[in-house]
Design a protein that fits this description.
Helices cover 35% and strands 21% of the residues. The protein has 13 helices and 22 strands. Strand 4 and strand 5 form a beta hairpin. The relative contact order is 0.11.
Length: 474
């Protein structure tokens, strides 16, 4: 620990400024992550954080622009503490910048607690396994890649896709079935456009959800260093509300691709050896410090569920950002450009999407006893229908068998009726599963090999009779 004298000691030994980085020589007692206050010759103040210590030299990462800064006459003061965020229940309904400063013309927050934003990942021993089904009201998510409380389930999107609309719809509609509590929403904007941020804020305000939300806004023209801090402020607020105030928190981080680009920019300024495609070799570790702060803790009523949004560069799912994300998170929702072109909302690509915790959150007492069978059969039928469409492109539709033609048509029915739904349409899980049975009833029963006989008798027969009656009436 440093002495009190050293806490207020100012250093005039700034020797180099490169991009967002500054080098200070002949320092003592300085620690990693410590805050730094820089005073310019004209009295202006800049702020930064210790990024690296090497002997008596400290590498400082500046939060503001270094334009106009020089080494002569500037002084650095090390403050003896890390970045902290002062919180109280008053943060609900407020809008902050990426450093946790209010930007909504409201009063300053009177903190109940102040916490270092560089929190730790949840200890696996302290984790409670996620198993509470979250109903989003979106059929393809609820049925095929179910979200559970405490999960981290990213959206792999592309340029021009309606990922913000999907996130806003989930924000409005998400609830844990059988419980009255609504989710508190924490939205962290990471380098997105003003239009995207304004859409989300306006949507929350119009639906009355802003009162149970906390927003952290870092726009595309805001400092890169702020972008790296923004998700940590958001997750610190989430941990406070979840584990100290027993709330269910839904954290939306958009766009993690911009966050990773900021990491690459700082890494290049530090002259580090680049990894894949120029990204730093520690990007996996850095992303894990964000994703692994989601979950449920033993003995705590609250929970943190994460919905990160990633824009895939050139729609490349093998890009390092989605690739590394997939190793850490419990699945992904992949959006499809062909479906988006056809006007399908949400344009979810069924086959590459999955939820690894789905089986823990479905079944009797959680959703419905037939959920697993319906999801498995819909997925299998859709996959077979896609293969039939590929075969028809080569051989023509006339070369398809009767069964293959049925599955060929099934793809169109599923995309038009099951995947597609209105932006403000909120379907219950019962409506979603019934719709799935309605689609399956039109397929040859002998081909439905993933449904247990008991569910065939209890559910399928009923929808087959309805389909025959409808066809007879037509």
């Amino acid at each position: 620990m440093k002495t009190d004298v050293n806490k207020f000691k100012e250093y005039k030994t700034i020797t180099e400024i490169s991009g967002p980085l500054m080098l200070v020589n002949s320092v003592s007692g300085v620690t990693y992550g410590e805050l730094v206050e820089i005073t310019l010759p004209d009295g202006q103040l800049r702020h930064g954080q210790v990024l690296e210590i090497n002997g008596d030299r400290a590498l400082v990462q500046l939060f503001e622009s270094t334009i106009g800064m020089g080494t002569n006459g500037s002084k650095a003061k090390f403050l003896g503490k890390g970045i902290e965020f002062g919180m109280s229940p008053e943060i609900l309904g407020r809008v902050f910048d990426g450093f946790g400063r209010p930007i909504d013309d409201g009063p300053e927050i009177l903190p109940e607690v102040s916490t270092d934003v560089n929190g730790l990942a949840i200890n696996p021993y302290s984790r409670e396994h996620p198993e509470d089904f979250i109903q989003t009201g979106i059929s393809c998510i609820d049925c095929l890649y179910t979200l559970v409380r405490g999960q981290k389930l990213p959206i792999f999107s592309g340029s021009g896709f309606p990922h913000m609309q999907i996130a806003a719809q989930i924000t409005r509609q998400a609830k844990v079935t059988g419980q009255a509590e609504q989710f508190v929403v924490i939205f962290a904007a990471l380098g997105i456009t003003f239009e995207e941020a304004d859409f989300f804020i306006s949507n929350l305000r119009q639906t009355g959800a802003l009162e149970r939300s906390v927003l952290f806004i870092n726009l595309a023209n805001d400092p890169v260093i702020e972008r790296i801090a923004t998700p940590r402020f958001a997750l610190t607020a989430a941990e406070y509300l979840a584990y100290q105030k027993d709330m269910h928190v839904l954290v939306i981080l958009a766009d993690l691709t911009n966050y990773c680009e900021a990491l690459r920019e700082v890494s290049a300024a530090r002259k580090e050896v680049p990894g894949r495609r120029g990204y730093p070799g520690y990007m996996y570790t850095d992303l894990s410090t964000i994703y692994e702060r989601a979950g449920k803790l033993k003995g705590k009523k609250g929970s943190i569920t994460q919905f990160p949004i990633l824009t895939l560069p050139s729609d490349d799912i093998t890009h390092p950002i989605p690739d590394l994300t997939g190793y850490i998170t419990e699945g992904q929702i992949v959006l499809s450009r062909p479906l988006h072109r056809e006007g399908v909302y949400p344009p979810a690509d069924i086959l590459p999407s999955l939820s690894r915790l789905m089986q823990k959150g479905i079944g009797r007492g959680k959703t419905r006893e037939d959920h697993s069978d319906v999801a498995n059969q819909l997925y299998a039928a859709y996959a077979r229908g896609r293969r039939a469409k590929e075969l028809a492109l080569i051989l023509g539709e006339d070369a398809l068998s009767y069964e293959d033609k049925k599955f060929y048509d099934f793809v169109d029915h599923m995309e038009r009726r099951f995947i597609r739904q209105g932006e403000y349409e909120n379907r219950t899980i019962e409506q979603t599963l019934d719709l799935g049975w309605e689609l399956l009833a039109d397929l040859p029963e002998a081909e439905l090999k993933r449904i247990r006989p008991a569910h065939v008798e209890k559910y399928l027969r009923k929808f087959q009779e309805k389909l025959r009656a409808k066809q007879a009436a037509e």
